[in-house]
């Protein structure tokens, strides 16, 4: 029954690019919301536009939908440039954070509304609505009103309504933002499995980096109206292009110091506390007597009670606080810098409480050289 809602079968194309954005710019008065953005979105992929409030991600999504007209640049959906195409002719499904369900209509009528507007026969509507509700596991609540549903159920109704018209593209505007954390995590899995099953190209706007990392095949990070990095989630997380991305996506321990020596592949950096750290570098990076910033992820820092080594890959410190969070704990260690070092500890393998560090403990922090990442100014 899902076959007819499979958009890959409904909209076959030779071009692997489902959406092509070239040189997109948009201004609101004197404010430049989006500046020269170019993006290619592969057919059948799940792509997230990720960034802080005001970065331009929602403007890009609205431009794809036809709700904002670009001042410059072009938007192509499939093989068609859609700059001048009105919203209702773009064949796009869209899901909003607030669901936008009609409160006086049943679930079935909400899902079938788009088909009714398009003039689909009643028999066709009934079959398509039943199929869409089965797809999101809501067939049993077809006659209920939205107010009789949970938040997660209402979100699934909105998704079914967006997919029932067999759109060539699904746009999601902070779709899970109104849900509590546990339900949001459940819906992330459901949404990803559904998108993969149906095969629809999906573009989501979010400021939630965990959501983007969990759902996306590709993440497009935006800041100040520009694309600052694009790539698979693991690449964006492991190899952020600058300090903004390293700070915005995940948690990082940032360091800065003076380069006192260097080889072709490594810089020796003296921190303000006098410690020496070896930092991997590339050609043209980190000249002697210049400043170099770098970061280490908390999960890449190891904690022990032994002695610090002399290989520029360990430091002594004092535990300030241990924040317990169930499966993991964050251990904050003072090493004589303005900010403590955050160390991520896994609690699952601790057989006795003695193994857990406590405030005041003297510890050694260590890491592998490959887990240290130099930052581009």
Automatic annotation (TrEMBL):
Gene3D superfamilies given in the database record: 2.40.50.100, P-loop containing nucleotide triphosphate hydrolases
Biological process according to GO: putrescine transport
Catalytic activity: ATP + H2O + polyamine-[polyamine-binding protein]Side 1 = ADP + phosphate + polyamineSide 2 + [polyamine-binding protein]Side 1
Protein EC: 7.6.2.11
Entry GO CC: ATP-binding cassette (ABC) transporter complex
Record carries keyword Transferase: no
InterPro entries: AAA+_ATPase (IPR003593), ABC_SmlMolc_Importer (IPR050093), ABC_transporter-like_ATP-bd (IPR003439), ABC_transporter-like_CS (IPR017871), Mo/tungstate-bd_C_term_dom (IPR008995), P-loop_NTPase (IPR027417), PotA-like (IPR005893), Transp-assoc_OB_typ2 (IPR013611)
Subunit structure: The complex is composed of two ATP-binding proteins (PotA), two transmembrane proteins (PotB and PotC) and a solute-binding protein (PotD).
General function of this protein: Part of the ABC transporter complex PotABCD involved in spermidine/putrescine import. Responsible for energy coupling to the transport system.
PANTHER family: SPERMIDINE/PUTRESCINE IMPORT ATP-BINDING PROTEIN POTA, SPERMIDINE_PUTRESCINE IMPORT ATP-BINDING PROTEIN POTA
Family named by the database record: Belongs to the ABC transporter superfamily. Spermidine/putrescine importer (TC 3.A.1.11.1) family.
Record protein name field: Spermidine/putrescine import ATP-binding protein PotA
Organism (species): Methylobacterium aquaticum
